[in-house]
Amino acid sequence: MTAEESKPSQQDQPKDPMLRALRISIGAMFLTLIATGLLLMTVYNPSTATAWGSVWYIQTQMTFGWLIRGMHYFASDAILVLALIYSAGIVVKRAYRGWGSGIWGMSLGVVAIVLIASLTGHLLPWDQDGYWGTIVRTNILARTPVIGDALRQLVLGGSAPGNFTLARFHMLHVIVLPLALSPVLLWLPIFHGRVLSFRKTDAEKSARTWPITRIVVTLIGLSVIAVHYGADWNLLAAPADASAVDYPARPEWHSLFLFQWLKLFETPTTEMIASVFVPAAVAGLLFLLPLSDVLLPRRGRAVVVWFTTLLLAGAIGLTADALVSDLAPSATELASVQAKINEGVELTSGEQRLLRTAQFNKQLRKARTISKRAAELASLHGIPPTGPLALLENDPRTRGPQLFADNCASCHRYGGHDGTGAIPNESATSSDLEGFASRGWIRELLEDPNDTKYFGLMKKPDTEPAHTKMATWVKKFRAQNAGNQEATEANLAAVAHYLESESLTPGRFAEIDAYTDLTNYPSTGNDRTLQKGRLFFMQTCNECHTYKGEYEGTTRAPEFLGYGSVEWLTLMIAQPDHSTRYRKSGKEPAQMPRFAERLSEEEITLIARWIHDSRKLSP
Q: Is the distance from CB of 343 to CB of 323 less than 8 angstroms?
C-alpha cells in the first residue's frame, strides 16, 4: 500500500456521535448568542456615559431583560467550553489526520474567535470588571517586543480605555466576530462529511430528530442557569472608574491560568517570555498538531496525547491554584501574622502572600458593596446625564469612608479601622467615631470619658491628657448621686436618648426650657424619655455646653443645638476652631486641623453625612 493510499479520506473520518452532538450544541449556543444579542442591541448604547446605564436598564427595568442578558452571558461561556471539549474530542479520536487537519484548524479557529468575542464583550458593560480586566490584558499585549506599545494603542484607540475602545470592541463583538464565526460553523459539518440530505426511511427520519432534541435540551439547561443566576448583580460591577487603582481585578475563568502563570515570573524579561513567546509557541504547536503523524509516524499519537494532557493538566492546575490562593485566610492565620508584625519578626514569603490575600478579599468585599450601592442609587435616582459615576461621586456611603480614610484616619478610627476596613500603621490619637452621637456612643462616653474610644488618647499641646474636665464632672456627678444610682442611670440614659434626637431633629424639644420639671408638661407617650433627657441637659449639661449660644456656668464647651447632625459635623470638620466648637484659644483650644482649606464643601459634607447616616440607632 502506498503512502498516498494509507492517508485517510474525507469519508474515512470518524463520524463520532459525540462530536456531532457537540457541533449541534455549539450551533445552538451560537444562535442563542445571535438572538439574545440582537435583543440587547435594542437598548444598549456603546459610550462611556451610557453603556453602564443601558446594561443596568436591561438588567433591572427591561421586561425579562435579566433573563435575556443572563442567557447571553452564560451562552458565551457555554460555547467556549463546548468548543474546548470538541477540540479535545478531535485529539482523542485522532480526527485531525488527513482531511481532519481542516477540521482541527477550524476547531482552533472557533476557540480563538469565541475567546476574543468573550474578551471584547467583557468591556461592553463599562463596569469595573471589564475596565480593569481590559487594562490588565492590554498591558500584557504591550510586552510584545518592538510592536507591543503600537498594538496596545491600536486596540485601545489611545493610551487608556475610552469611547474609542468601546466603539472598536462593540464593532468586533457584534459584527466582525459573528461574521467570522458563521462560515466556520457552517463548514465544520461539511468537512466531517455530514452534508444534510433528505431521507425517506423511518429509521433515518427518526435519527434526524436527535439534533432538535439536543438543541431543546441545551437551551432548557441554559435557561435554567440564566433564571438561577441571571438576576444576580455580580453580573454587573460598579461603573468603570479610572481612579480606582485598588480595584481587585481578576480575569475571567478562561484566563485565570495565564494570570497565575505570570505570577511565577518577576523580571521584565522573564515576564515578556512567559506572556508572549510561551503562549505563541504553544499556539503554534497546537496548530501544527496534524503534522505529528507525518513527522513522527511511530510516536506521533503518543506525543500528541502527552502534549495535550500536560497542557490541559497545567491549565487546570494553574486555574485551581489561582482560585485557592484567593480564598480568604482565617482569623487565626491573620492573628498569628499580626502578632509577628507587632513583635518585629520578619515574615516568610507565605505569610506575606497571606497578607496580600487578606487585602485582596477586603478590596473584593468593598467592590461588591459599591456595586450593589450603585445599583440601588440608579434605582432611586436614575442615571445622571453626566454618567453613572456621578451616582457614586455624590454618595456618602461610598465616598465618605474613602475620604475619611484619606483625611481623618491619621488621628481617628472608625470601629478600629480607617473607615474602609484597613488598619493604619500609625496609632490613633483621638476618638473612635463609629456610632458618633448615637444613643449608645453617648451613653458609653458618660460611663468613662477617658476610655481610649473617647478622650483617653487625646493630649494637650503640653502632652497632658485632654478633656479632663468631662471625666472630672462624671466622677463628681456619680459621687453626688451615689445614694440614688437607679435615678442616676435613668437620667444618663435619657440625656443620651435626647442628644441622639438632636442629631436627627435639632431643637425638637427646645420648648421644654420653660419648665423646671415635667409635671405640667403635656405627655406624648414615647417622647416622655426624650423630654426628661432634655430637661436634664438644660439643668446639668448646660452648665458647660452652650445651646443656641447660651450656657449657665463658666466653662464654655461646644454648642449642642443639633449635636451630631450633618450640619453640626460639617462645621466641626471644616472649622473645629469655630466659636461654637473648640475655639482658637482657651484652656483647651482646637487641635484638630481646619479642613475647610483642604477639602471642598461637598467632600466635607460627604464625610459628615457618612458618619451621621452609618450609625446604628437604638429603637
A: no
